[in-house]
Amino acid sequence: MKIYIQKDGQAAGPYSLEELREKTYTYELSRTTLACPEGGTKWVPLETLFTPVAWAVPAAPPVLAGNLARLRDPKEKTALLWLCIASIPAYLVLLLWIVASFGGALLIIGLVWGAMAIGEMWFAAYLKTNAVRVSPTQLPEVFNVVQTCSQRLGMEPPEVYVMQHNIWNAFATKIFGRRMVVLLSGAVDSILLKGDLQQLTWLVGHELGHHWAGHLNLSQRLAKAGAWLVWVALWHSRRCELTCDRVGLYCTGSVKASQLALMNATVGAQLADRVNLVEAIRQWQQHRGEFFVQCRTLYSTHPHMLARLDHMSAAAGEFGMAAEARSVLKAISDQLKAISYQ
């Protein structure tokens, strides 16, 4: 379908929906720009024509039906156990300090807790007044993604905000029991520039994964007292991120969309769909045993990007999506060969 738009009081075009969507993502056009399908007579806001563009999340992997525990990275619980063990000396030292100070340490602990609580309220106030909260009438496409992912995970949807910040990131947080997810515009814009809502679903699913897996619950926060053993804390952090990658894959229901979203975070919007995923995975496997690569891993809060791609491919096999994963890799490889011969 080709579409005309009104620009400077004149009809311009026709353009394809893809062209117009890209113009809105780069702010060349507003979503409220008047548009009319070729052959039509009625001018309507451009965003109403985007609605029919298909975002239909594929069916969840059937192998996981009723067994969502398999979404959790197999080593995450082991890492958490070691973190809990490491927290025991920290709490013993804290107890001795309280006893030795005749309870005076409790005042300092209370002051620290109070300062952290004020900081959380301060951030919440900033978020409520400088970000847009998605709802059925505010960024409804994103709202539908959140609802679909939450239903698939069997959890209540958290509050989701979109905030301007020109970095590729998003994060989950919990403030006084209120679960929140913040999507930064740098990530959203980059994905939607060349991608689609399926790829955005992976990002949303990843952040929902932190809430689903209980990473922000009080029990896991208390376990972080073991962070004095920094390597264990970082190991646990990396396994949590891999769990969330797996949750994102499950929510998206598409290996291709999940891999492209991850590549978007790696090489950017313009090149993500041109990356040879097979070669990227081999690159990680080639270098993962090197001394300095292993050192960087030990001191990283997140797994390396190419390692995450490798883990996601392995997870696709666990979830019964191996056939799709193989077909995606073959299609991309064939596409890149065709481009090289042009």
3D structure, described in words:
The chain has 342 residues and is an alpha+beta fold. The protein folds into two domains: 2-50, Dna Ligase, domain 1 (2-Layer Sandwich); 73-341, no CATH class. The protein is built from 14 helices and eight strands. A hairpin with a 6-residue loop joins strand 3 and strand 4 (44-45). The mean pLDDT is 86.
Spell out the key features of this protein.
11% strand; 14 helices; single chain; 4-stranded antiparallel β-sheet; 4-stranded mixed β-sheet; alpha+beta; Dna Ligase, domain 1; 342 residues; globular; 2 domains
What general form does the structure show?
Answer: globular
The strand order across the widest sheet is: 2-1-3-4
- Can you write the helix and strand succession as a string? EEHEEHHHEHEEEHHHHHHHHH
Supply the helix-strand structural class.
Answer: alpha+beta
- Mean pLDDT rating: 86
Distance between the termini: 28 Å
Query: Residue ranges: pLDDT <50 for 5 or more in a row?
Result: none
The oligomerization state is single chain
Total beta strand runs: 8
What is shown here, in short?
The protein has 342 residues and is of the alpha+beta class. The protein contains 14 helices and 8 strands. Strands 2-1-3-4 form a 4-stranded antiparallel β-sheet.
How do the helices and strands line up, and which of them pair or pack?
Blueprint: E1 2-7, E2 10-16, H1 17-25, E3 34-37, E4 44-45, H2 46-50, H3 76-100, H4 104-130, E5 132-133, H5 140-153, E6 159-163, E7 170-175, E8 178-184, H6 185-194, H7 197-212, H8 218-223, H9 230-252, H10 255-267, H11 277-287, H12 291-298, H13 305-318, H14 322-341
Parallel strand pairs: 6-8
Antiparallel strand pairs: 1-2, 1-3, 3-4, 5-6, 7-8
Helix pairs in contact: 3-9, 5-7, 5-9, 7-9, 7-10, 9-13, 10-13, 11-13, 13-14
